Amino acid sequence: EESEIDENGVSYNGLRQYIKERVFGHDEAIDKLAQKIYMNYTAKDNESIESILLVGPTGTGKTETIHAARDYLNIPSYEVNASNLVPQGIKGMSIEDVIVGLYESAGRNLKKAEKGIIFLDEFDKLPDADLDLKQPVKNILLTFTGGGNFPIDNDRYNFDFNSSRITKIYAGVFQRISEKVKALGFNSIQELNDVLGTDKEIRKKIIEKGYFTAEELTRITTILGYGELNRDTKKEILLGSKLSEFSKKKARYKRQFKIDLIADDSYIDAILDTIDKDAQGMRNINNYVIETIDTAEQEILKGNVPKNKQLVLSSATVYDPKIFEVK
């Protein structure tokens, strides 16, 4: 596919491909997200900037998507837990502190910072925060989302920050809007899947469940659902994502030690069983992989695994990393 390539060598198709090599299972949402971020990135003065809300369970790839977009476009970003925000003058993280964080991540380059990404996670928890703080913070975020001017004046910095060109991305689980339905899966196994729906449907549920009012959501132009990942997609992430520690280890062992790292089906099933029991979803998968491979890696470094051999991991390796096979 061909698409416009700017002077920095980036394009819409390049952005969506870069994200999809790292985040699996949300092709339609990623296409739309890449569209919005790319249009924001290429916007000139007085051209519209759209804000985005990502809705879905923990560990489905929301944060990884934003990191991938940031890395591909080589722009600064700053992320914060929205539920921790407080009005200026109260001890805690204010929106002014968030702006300063973005400014510093841009190397104190104001022009670059004003084209960056601010990512506010756990946005769904903001309405459940302290009632005395909730409405002032909501009002500040409405101004921020709409593209207001924020004067920064503290002991370190004094400048005016124009938030009209920042890409603002919000994210949250929004637990109360999740609908669990039974779907007939592979080999007649019934799985529970989250059905989130379209932008319009998710927006309606957020309002009905009392998270935000219609007016408060008006300035968020795009809402995208990140549904639960099925088992096949989790397997694809484990074996094929460029963020997968297994993929990275496999490539490195081949390059550095001339050893093929092999995961048999039982290893994959055992890892995915562990993930399914983890409330963090796929978020901890790399930690589990590293833990299972750690002892085998020591044996490689000690010279106990010959070159041009296969190092095979099985379900036994997941439960006892000392158990693996060399073929």
Note the total helix count.
Answer: 13
Instruction: Write down the oligomeric state.
Output: single chain
The largest sheet has its strands arranged as 2-3-6-1-9
Coarse structural class: alpha/beta
Q: Summarize the main sheet.
A: 5 strands, parallel
Question: How far from one another are the termini?
Answer: 42 Å
Low-confidence stretches: 181-194
Task: Supply Rg.
Answer: 22 Å
Residue share in helix = 40-55%
N-to-C SSE string, H for helix and E for strand: HHEHEHHEHEEEEEHHEHHEHHEHE
Shape: globular
Walk me through the structure.
The chain is α/β, with parallel strands linked by helices and 327 residues long. Helices cover 42% and strands 17% of the residues. Strands 2-3-6-1-9 form a five-stranded parallel beta sheet, sandwiched between helices. A hairpin with a 4-residue loop joins strand 4 (149-153) and strand 5. The longest helix is centred in the C-terminal third of the chain and has 17 residues, at 285-301.
Give a brief outline of the structure:
Helix content is 42%, strand content 17%.
What are its keywords?
single chain, 327 residues, alpha/beta, five-stranded parallel beta sheet, three-stranded mixed beta sheet, 13 helices
